[in-house]
Amino acid sequence: xxxxxxxxxxxxxxxxxxxxxxxxxxxxxxxxxxxxxxxxxxxxxxxxxxxxxxxxxxxxxxxxxxxxxxxxxxxxxxxxxxxxxxxxxxxxxxxxxxxxxxxxxxxxxxxxxxxxxxxxxxxxxxxxxxxxxxxxxxxxxxxxxxxxxxxxxxxxxxxxxxxxxxxxxxxxxxxxxxxxxxxxxxxxxxxxxxxxxxxxxxxxxxxxxxxxxxxxxxxxxxxxxxxxxxxxxxxxxxxxxxxxxxxxxxxxxxxxxxxxxxxxxxxxxxxxxxxxxxxxxxxxxxxxxxxxxxxxxxxxxxxxxxxxxxxxxxxxxxxxxxxxxxxxxxxxxxxxxxxxxxxxxxxxxxxxxxxxxxxxxxxx
Amino acid sequence: xxxxxxxxxxxxxxxxxxxxxxxxxxxxxxxxxxxxxxxxxxxxxxxxxxxxxxxxxxxxxxxxxxxxxxxxxxxxxxxxxxxxxxxxxxxxxxxxxxxxxxxxxxxxxxxxxxxxxxxxxxxxxxxxxxxxxxxxxxxxxxxxxxxxxxxxxxxxxxxxxxxxxxxxxxxxxxxxxxxxxxxxxxxxxxxxxxxxxxxxxxxxxxxxxxxxxxxxxxxxxxxxxxxxxxxxxxxxxxxxxxxxxxxxxxxxxxxxxxxxxxxxxxxxxxxxxxxxxxxxxxxxxxxxx
Lengths: 364, 289
Hints:
A: mainly alpha, Cytochrome Bc1 Complex, Chain C, globular, B: mainly alpha, 8 helices
């Protein structure tokens, strides 16, 4: 048998010599996972996968989509009805955005419940919060692009809410709208933010997030004796990668199934007259929308309180969390305030989201 | 110490097997659901549902066996019997058919009852002034809390009974003398196939086949056309036959040549005569052209 390297081995050796491929591979895959691989750790990888799929489907949609007030609606209809598999790509992109929000919530919940935001992982948590904001921004800006009544009025409501922010609110609302009412300038600006600014910001911050995570290392499970953890400690490859891949496959199949069950169907083309349409934001903002319907949040001050002050204070609390909660205890069952707080927040979101859905019956 | 088998309550034992088994089988079932949807079959309507339930049986047997073996070996320190998956599956299925049906009935009754009671309370004169948004949330929280507590109790009951079934299997199994680390290693080897490249090839092949199958059966145009969308009726474009096209072009050229000749003859004959109105019109047309 010949010991001479073949062409592929020579190419790999050539690249390795110049970029340190093997060192990079070892660094990427041989990361020890304390306590072994777990299904609870899949959310970060799945988020990255969903984002890549959003980028791929988004680029394919851009081949046909025209970001102008005159053609946005018609080009979206064209994608749905005329382009081969266009209906599926658009529906996948639509449900993919919801999957990103669900995965962000799941990932943040896992980090919070596992106490993985504590020292020395404060910066990972802060960058993660910024990424959460970007994902929400993606949802908000992407919603306008089909330019139907739903898109137009959800954006109108969203921008009006933003307008209530003190000092910067008026500027932000005017900048986003680019005029008195949403029109061509609004669509152009939302499109640029959606396809240029936010993806660039997400890629940069996600890179930083992963770098910081690798620097600090995985937090591992919040309970278990050192002997148990040692016995189960494994490398990132192959066990965790296998779990990640299965989860990615399951999420992909779920998004595809949703695209089949509930494909995107546009409403009438956007007009400044809502007619019989009741403006409503995307489902993940519904709880906030329903909160603003409560009497306590009526009036100028009430709206500011419900739309800006409370969500703002909540986000500020999340950002300050690793600096307030300095106890090294990570076991969620020994952190009753954190556990009850998480349950209350989740229950509130659930109750008000369902309430908003029930509320639709009383609008006509 | 971890070398000693863990003492687990029936609820914990049931949860330790049922929860991972559910998630282990889930990805495979989702793929099956997707393929059914792509083929235009709804997985919750008759032929699709029957097909899905049938295919779920081996998946569930495998999933419950995998998580059951893990718990028995790692947590309870006993050698899992070979038929563990099948035994736990049929016993679990019988439990679901009896206890599950009863639990569903009780939960439905609870929801209906609590909804009626809460609505009646909120209809009291004293509470009628509550605005609609507040009323919806109060109602939902009130009946939802009752329903959630009952659901939790029923779930715990189900897990307790399933845990008893797992415990019976554990009691019948022989204890292992191996240390915790050795048990983990044994458990690990049980899950990892001996021929890993073969396993990887099979997984890849199945994945590629599934993707190809999906694209093959997926409708090209939307299966849900919008009511208001008028799709252009596409007329069938006749196939181009080069010989026919050439013959047609030749015919057109011959006709054109004949027309030109007629015009030239006409022009010769009318030489020297004063132009008629028709000639003037023809000249103006030519100029325009």
